[in-house]
Design goal:
Largest sheet: none
Number of domains: 2
Radius of gyration: 35 Å
Number of strands: 0
Order of helices and strands: HHHH
Helix content: over 70%
Distance between the termini: 91 Å
Structural class: mainly alpha
């Protein structure tokens, strides 16, 4: 393989690798796509009368590299590890929101407790106010 082709594979893997994808599947997809394209291009160049095998292989490799990279990116995006990582990030994001809401609910609950009456009134201040069914406390 030529150095330009290897540099193209490396740069393509780095460009897409920084976008939340894992580098290993992308590198394998880029190399596999490039090799498959180069092999196909070489076969086509050999079959064509007066065809240039090297130029056809380079053209096939140049076409196969982004195709292999795209297939590897789609595979990596839908792999179990990537899906788990995205779900874990979503869970952590939602968990922070839930904690914030729970703190707000606790503060409101404390405010209601502070505003409400505390304990039962003194025995001499109580009047028997039961006039039928009640929810529990006869002294209201």
């Amino acid at each position: 393989m030529s150095r330009a082709f290897l540099a193209l594979i490396f740069s393509a893997s780095l460009c897409v690798g920084g976008c939340g994808f894992h580098a290993k599947p992308l590198a394998i997809g880029a190399v596999g796509g490039g090799l498959a394209g180069a092999g196909t291009g070489a076969i086509v160049g050999a079959v064509i009368a007066n065809g240039d095998v090297a130029a056809s292989a380079l053209l096939g490799g140049a076409i196969g590299l982004p195709v292999g990279l795209a297939i590897a990116a789609i595979y990596d995006y839908n792999s179990d590890l990537s899906v788990r990582e995205r779900n874990q990030a979503l869970i952590m994001e939602n968990q922070e929101e839930l904690y914030a809401r729970q703190r707000e609910i606790d503060a409101l609950r404390e405010k209601v407790r502070d505003d409400g009456p505390r304990g039962n009134p003194a025995e001499e201040l109580r009047d028997y106010q039961y006039n039928g069914h009640s929810y529990g406390n006869y002294y209201r």
